[in-house]
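We modelled the chain as a single entity of 192 amino acids. Its sequence is:
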Amino acid sequence: MGEGRPSAEAGLFALEAVVVRQPQRSRWRRYAGPALAVSTVEGTLLAHVTHTDDTHSLLAKASGECLVRIERFRSAKFVFTDDTGREVGTARAGKFIKTWQLSLQTEQGRRLLLTRRGHLSTEWQLTETDPHRSPAPEVLGRVTASTHDTWIGLQQYVVETAPGLDASERRTVIASVVCLHQLRRPPGGSSG
């Protein structure tokens, strides 16, 4: 899995590795900035996520240009659209343990699974088939969650993808990490 270095015209979704994290904030004042920031592994800000309400989120470039709109339906179905309103992917969580596995569908119809490695694990694997069944599938990526400010409980997710994934598939994976965060820390929560 690559180093995540940007090229001049490649853009966010061409990178093999990015970090999605809750921005640093004051412990004492109400925070009014973006819900999440997307950066290179070196820390260069590329995009941010804002929640317009409990069911709508916007992933936008640091300049403000829309990259992906995320709409949440029912408790755990998400639809991703581009700035023209065209559907470019989906994510759906299970009924009982919503953060165990997300079923993704890319713009081209490719089905992927983002599955937690174990009940207490902070890592999810990206595969085409269930990694808990035999034979073990090829791992196309991984998402590793951690806390980067233990006082407030701010979360970060390192997203690594295989070189074989294209930009539209990476767009679906990055949008699904926003969904995973929303399932783990709903908008409007004390650390969200």
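As a brief sanity check on the tokenised model: Confidence is low (pLDDT under 50) at residues 1-10. The longest helix spans residues 167-184.
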